[in-house]
Amino acid sequence: MRSLFIAIVLSFNLFGQSNVGYLFEELPNDSVYNYSDNLHTTVYPQSWVSNNLSISNWHSRKFKKATLNFNPLLDLGAFYSKSFNYRSGLGLNFDGTIGKKWYFRVGYIQGIFKGDSLFIPKSFVDQNFKKIEGFGDLRGRFSFTPSSLFNFQIGLDHQFIGEGCRSLFLSDYGRPYPFGLIRSRFWKVEYTVLYQFFREIGGLGWKMKNAATHHISFNATKWLNIGIFESVVFQPKDTLLNRGFEVEYLNPVIFYRPQEYSIGSSDNVLLGASFNFKYKQHQLYTQLILDEFFLSEIKAKSGWWANKYGGQIGIKGRFEIFSGKLFYRTEYNFVRPYTYAHLTSGQNYGNQGMTLAHPYGGNFMELLGEVKYQRGNFLFKLFMSYALQGLDKDGYSYGADLYQPYTLRPYEYGHKIGQGLGNNSFRMVLTGAYNISKSGRLQVFFENHLRYDSALNSVSYLPFFGLRSQLWNDYRNY
After folding, report:
1. In terms of DSSP H, where are the helices of 115-234?
2. Is the pLDDT of residue 127 over 60?
3. What's the mean pLDDT in 224-245?
């Protein structure tokens, strides 16, 4: 499940605050639905949030012009899948401010695990201790806000763009990555520039790749937000050239597609648009992603392989009911074959073997729904999804796995969603949880996972219980 929790978003004149919110699950008691025409809620985490968003601090020190907070981190869980499995991690998180313009946050969990691949931590570094698999999960960011117009950040973390459970632009399902970010707000516009540094396994070690991303958020009215997205992925070094971070892409006010053509590159450019309609406590949201296409081929309905695009439409909202609060969402996503893929792993839209957008990659359609009910410290969640995806077979790529080059396609025309080895999948996650801390960041939980895949003729049930500090999302619903 992809959702985000940002509790109190302040208005435009408080943009100068240095605090940065957390990527977090969207819950029934969120107060992010403060619909002024100066509010932008599509790019997460927010960087102008209230001090009230700090977690319940285990230890805090105040100095003349700075604060420093320490908090222990827990990631303890166990589940049964043919044998007893576990995930055990302990760590520390500290954050603070320096004056009114600087904010920093660093969290690290060291742990070990055994079990189903769905529960493997998506950490920046994997570790092995003889016969035990381990992980070191490090996240952090440093933020500088010199004025009410600009915010600058660097760190090792995720970003998320969108209002949905999933995102076709940029998601936080995979592993964190180093980044630099510039964000500006003026009039009814918020402009974000993101420089990302990825890597892939290749040869004898890691091979680096980079990306530059732009996002414009425009509040046309109090009820309508329009977003424009573009991203370019490129290799800093190949067999012919060592160009580092392409200087042409450092320009924060260019369009990547014309720039790509001007430098004669084969870099991977994606374009997108979003429309979000708000009414009281409800929201209708959409995304459209374009990787590559020719209008004449679309009109001809030829199923040409290079018509690569996807779409999303969803509705979400919340009610107060039975002395508690309820959140609902229903969402439909589709992505055509070969979207996000390229010639090599150094040019596709992925990082460390995982997609940067929707967790299914390409060649799929998905319908999902979720309901969450919160009363006091108790939280109950139900997530259900159905997906059709065409998997690879017979040595050919049918467009699902973006780490397979599109040159392995079996034919030029007639491509459609679900081609290849068709897999109908069903996911259901029923969760009961109790928030131990007042902020809800420390939680004891019990999850019930039911999964079905027709291509594997597989039905499985996984009960999972544990105790965790929820400072970043840990998805297990795909």
Report:
1. none
2. yes
3. 78
Cβ burial 288-301 (10 Å sphere, 16+ → b, else e): bbbbbeeeeeeeee
Q: Report DSSP state, residue 250.
A: G
Domain boundaries, the chain: 12-469
Quote the CA–CA distance of 78 and 446 in Å, as a whole number: 10
Cα–Cα distance for residue pair 317/334, rounded to 1 Å: 22
Instruction: Provide the CA 136 distance to its chain's centre, in angstroms.
Output: 20
SS3 110: strand
32 Cβ neighbours under 8 A, 6+ residues apart: 6, 7, 8, 9, 26, 41
- How many residues make up the chain in this entry? 478
Distance CA 23, CA 233 (A): 23
pLDDT in tens, 111-122: 988 887 777 888
Question: The domain at 12-469 falls in which architecture?
Answer: Beta Barrel (2.40)
CB 210 within 8 A of CB 175: no
For residue range 129-175, what is the model confidence (pLDDT) as tens digits? 777 888 889 999 999 998 888 999 999 999 999 999 999 999 999 99
Residue 294 tokens, joined? 């020719």
Give, in degrees to the nearest 5, the angle at Cα 30 between 29 and 36. 135
CA–CA dist 177, 168 (Å, integer): 18
Q: Are 351 and 174 in contact (CB under 8 A)?
A: yes
pLDDT (0 to 100) of residue 298 = 83
Q: What is the pLDDT of residue 57?
A: 61
Q: How far, in Å, CA of 418 to CA of 436, rounded?
A: 44
Residues 6 or more apart whose Cβ sits within 8 Å of residue 184 = 149, 150, 151, 190, 191, 192
pLDDT of residue 120: 82
Q: Where are the alpha helices (DSSP H) in 176-332?
A: 256-262, 295-300
Question: Quick one: tokens of 346?
Answer: 């150094």
The C-alpha atoms of residue 9 and residue 53 are separated, in whole angstroms, by 10
Average pLDDT score over the chain: 85
Residues whose CB falls within 8 Å of the CB of residue 351, separated by 6 or more in sequence, listed in order:
174, 175, 177, 196, 198, 199, 200
What's the token pair of residue 158?
């995720």
Residue 1 has pLDDT above 50, yes or no: no
* 50-102 residue pLDDT tens: 433 444 566 677 777 888 888 889 999 998 877 888 989 999 998 888 888 89
Task: Answer yes or no: are the C-beta atoms of 281 and 318 closer than 8 Å.
Answer: yes
Residue 436 · residue 58 · CB < 8 Å: no
Q: Which helix (H) or strand (E) holds 105?
A: strand 102-114
Among the listed residues 374, 312, 425, 438, the one whose alpha carbon sits nearest the alpha carbon of residue 56 = 438
Residue with tokens 């998180």: 93
